[in-house]
Amino acid sequence: MNAVEALRVAQENGVRLGVVGSDLILDTHTEPPADVVEAICRHKAEIIELLAPPKNRWSARDWLAFFDERAGIAEFDSGQTRAEAAAFAFECCIVEWLNRHPQHSDPDRCAWCEKPDRDGHSIVPFGTESHGHTWLHPECWNDWSQDRRETGQRSLAAMGLKAPLKCAEGTN
User: Fold this and answer.
1) What is the residue extent of each domain of the chain?
2) Buried b (16+ CB within 10 A) or exposed e, 52-91
3) Global pTM?
C-alpha cells in the first residue's frame, strides 16, 4: 500500500485528513480500524506532502504546459514523431514529478519493506542532500522505484495528464 491508497482507504472508512503545519490531523466520528491507522502512520510523511498547501506545487495547467513544451521540443527540434515526442514528454513529467515529490524516510528502517538493517542487507540512502534521502535495502530499490513512478503517474492522471499509449504499454 502506498500513500495514495492509504488516503483512499482512510476516506472509505470515514476518516478525513488534514494538515496543520507539519502535523497530520485525523477527523472521524468513530474509531477507525487498526489497519487504517497503521497505513496512515506508515505513510504519514508522504500523506502530509500530498495534502499540504501548495508551496512550489504546479497546477494541472502548469503540468500540461510543461508536457506541451517538452513534446514540442522533441517533435520539432529533435525530429521525433508525435507519438515518440509525447512518450518523451510524459517521461519528462514523471521525472519532474519525482524531483518535486521526494520521499524522505527514517534511516533506521527500509522505506519499502520497513525492516531494519540485518546481516548482508544494509539500509543505504538513495537521493541527494538537497532533496533528502530515502533509506532502502538495495534489493528493495526496484520495487520502491516502480511504486514511486506509479504514484507519479496516478498523480499526473488525476490532473488530466495520462501516459501516451506507447508509454502505458511499457514499450518505450
Assistant:
1) 1-53, 57-172
2) eeeeeebeeeebbebbeebbeebbeeeebeeebbbbbbbb
3) 0.64
